[in-house]
Amino acid sequence: MIKPVEHGGALDRAVARYGGKAQDWLDLSTGINPEHFPLPALGEALWNRLPDEGLFQRTLETARLYYGIAETAPIVAAPGTQALIQLVPTLLPASTVAIMGPTYQEYGASFQAAGWNVVECRGPDDIPDEARVAVVVNPNNPDGRVIARKDLVELAQRLGARGGFLVVDEAFADAHHHVSVAAEAASLPMIVLKSFGKFFGLAGLRLGFMISNPLIAERVKQRLGPWAVSGPALAIAGQAFKSRTELTDFRARIDLRRLGLSGVLERSGLKEIGGVALFSLVEHPDAYAVHEELCKRHILVRKFSYAPEWLRIGLALDDAGLRRLEEALETISRLKT
């Protein structure tokens, strides 16, 4: 039996255990931007009709521009990247998959459920010869590790020679465009996954994209079937992708929040060992106790069963949230001295 995967964002469970109302909690447990991108006005027809092909194609055109890929590059829209993560293991007969970890645990669970032998590796040089597929989250969740573009290209070519492919999850690359390998995917045995919800702060929309070569893209498109993504989701994404001025300001606010978080962590004596624009990874010898004390103060961060000395802390929406976190950490520090 496959164990359920632990995730951030389980605010309902925290409320049930520690009390209070959900709106009174400061949820810093996810990698989702706490500010959502401005929503456009949507016509009623979008809610009343199935999404037409024209809407699909217009959204995919703006997505190609946003992700910096060729105007003919194959791209597939899906109801969230999680749907794609569970579909990818079915594209080949079960064999061995190498997952660079520790990382997002749904990859291991999905491949294992499909009958694959799952091997965790630390880097491209550790991938065993029998692996037909490899998975790299880039930048990585939770430590922010980045694998260079040339190394990913070489790895994809190596796997392709075995009849396999490379999966590159770029869920957190929107704020780190320089690491993206999406522009290479159309000509390689490679699948690049893009999350819309994290950077744009619209995880509830359930929208993701896959960029790959024509053969893989067509197979995935056929498996998803017609109308895989809602009309409102397509319209919202299409508008966001082309809002250049708003995107510049939006990114700047993420950077300011991240600087603010790093400042709080430094002043609180928490050792920052990694992360990305949307979260920090810290190390503490008594991380579980810190997590518990924060929960008692209705602040939720992410702990890890496989790394009990780690905590992942997301961005606060505003200065009030940052002050609340800093005051809580100061109180916890005094309790332990």
Description:
By secondary structure, this protein is α/β, with parallel strands linked by helices. It has two domains: 11-36 and 246-335, Aspartate Aminotransferase, domain 1 (Alpha-Beta Complex), CATH 3.90.1150; 50-242, Aspartate Aminotransferase, domain 2, CATH 3.40.640.10. 39% of the residues lie in helices and 18% in strands. The protein is built from twelve helices and 13 strands. It has helices spanning 11-18, 45-48, 53-67, 81-87, 106-113, 149-160, 197-200, 214-224, 231-241, 244-267, 287-296, 319-335; strands at residues 26-27, 75-78, 96-100, 117-121, 131-137, 165-169, 190-195, 208-212, 271-276, 279-283, 299-300, 302-303, 310-314. The strands form three sheets. A seven-stranded mixed β-sheet has the order 2-8-7-6-5-3-4, sandwiched between helices. It has a four-stranded antiparallel β-sheet with strand order 9-10-13-12, covered by helices on one side. Helix 6 (149-160) links the parallel strand 5 and strand 6. Helix 10 (244-267) runs parallel beside helix 12. The model has no long low-confidence stretch (mean pLDDT 95).
Structural class: alpha/beta
Put simply, the count of helices is: 12
> How many separate domains make up the residues?
2
Distance between the termini: 43 Å
Q: What percent of residues adopt helix (DSSP H or I)?
A: 25-40%
CATH hierarchy class name of the largest domain: Alpha Beta
Please name the CATH topology of the largest domain.
Answer: Aspartate Aminotransferase, domain 2
The major beta sheet can be summarized as:
7 strands, mixed
Instruction: Please state the oligomeric state of the protein chains shown.
Output: single chain
Strand order of the biggest β-sheet: 2-8-7-6-5-3-4
Basic shape: globular
Strand residues, percent: 15-25%
Q: Indicate the radius of gyration in whole angstroms.
A: 20 Å
Per CATH, the superfamily of the largest domain is: Type I PLP-dependent aspartate aminotransferase-like (Major domain)
